[in-house]
Every structure is written in structure tokens, then in C-alpha cells.
Amino acid sequence: MTTKTKPASLPYIVRRSNIHGNGVFARRNIREGELIDEYMGERIDWDEANLRAEQAHGPVNHTFFFSLADGRVIDGGSEGNDARFINHACEPNCEAQEDEGRVFIYALRDITRGEELNYNYALVYEERHTAAVKRQFACNCGSPGCTGTMLAPKRQSKAKKTPAKA
């Protein structure tokens, strides 16, 4: 990928999205592998993230929280930038990569001017994925391969192995 320095001029603008609320759109053509921006915000622990979600009266994953490998969270709703408005898509044109506790957004493919930027949130939800839960985390990306949810698939428990028949 490219260097981790912030682009001199952001290659995107924020405006209303058909997917959800605000969205981020390419201001110019963006090349595959190009650094688009860093996801910024206050670094907090999960206890604080849960408290903030409770105070906002919403599920913890319906926030601008971005989980980090070290167990902390970036709260893009506090001290964040416009990268927090990048919407989810099941067939994304961007990806988020963590590097030493920082999250960078890169183009997965060439993106044309005016196209909405998106990445797959793959939200982890440990509870059962009931129909009601899936509705809470419904996806509106409209891509041909849309799964209908922003949730990551549940991990399958290891199935019991049965001996092969001779």
C-alpha cells in the first residue's frame, strides 16, 4: 500500500447518502491502493464505549466506534473526522487497515468521481443473530451480493467429526 501520511487534500466530500444518512463520496478519481484518510477519534476502552452507547440509547454497534486489536476503541463521534461517515457495503470499494493502533482507509479498486465510498463493517455481535437482531443491523447497500446485514457471520463451532466409512 501507499505511505501512512495524510493526503494533502482529502479525495472525498460528505453529503446525504441513499445507503444511510450521511455518506462519503469521491471528489475525484481514486486509484486502487490509494490512502483515502485515517479514521480519527478519541481512544477509549470498551467499558466507556458501552457506557456511551447506553447513554445514547442505542446498540453499541450503532455508533462511530471502531474496534482496535489491543481491545481499545476509536470513538469517531468524539474528536473524529469525516471518515466516520463512510457507510457499510457488502461488496466494498474500500478497506480499513489497522497499523500500530491507527486505522487507515484504502481504496480496494479504482473509484470514480462521485461514487460513494464504503467498506464492510463486519460487526461482531456475540448474541444470537435472530431475525430481530438482523433487522437492527440491516444493510441497505443494494449490491448484488448484499447479505442483508452489517453483521459478521457467526463463528461456527467445530462440528463433531464422524469416522469415515470404508
Structure, explained:
This protein has 166 residues and is mainly beta. Helix content is 10%, strand content 25%. It is built from 2 helices and 10 strands, in the order E-E-E-E-H-E-E-E-E-E-E-H. It has helices spanning 46-55, 131-136; strands spanning 12-16, 22-26, 35-39, 42-44, 65-67, 73-75, 87-88, 94-99, 102-107, 116-119. The longest helix has 10 residues, at 46-55. The radius of gyration is 18 Å and the shape is globular. Pfam families: SET. It comes from Massilia agrisoli. Residues 10-122 form the SET domain. This is SET domain-containing protein-lysine N-methyltransferase.
Bin the helical content. under 10%
Give me the secondary-structure category. mainly beta
Q: Kindly, what is the distance between the CA atoms of the first and last residues, rounded to a whole number of angstroms?
A: 50 Å
Beta content comes to: 25-35%
Number of strands: 10
Name the strands of the widest sheet in spatial order: 1-2-10-7
Low-confidence stretches: 160-166
Write the layout of secondary structure elements.
Blueprint: E1 12-16, E2 22-26, E3 35-39, E4 42-44, H1 46-55, E5 65-67, E6 73-75, E7 87-88, E8 94-99, E9 102-107, E10 116-119, H2 131-136
Parallel strand pairs: 7-10
Antiparallel strand pairs: 1-2, 2-10, 3-9, 4-6, 5-6, 8-9
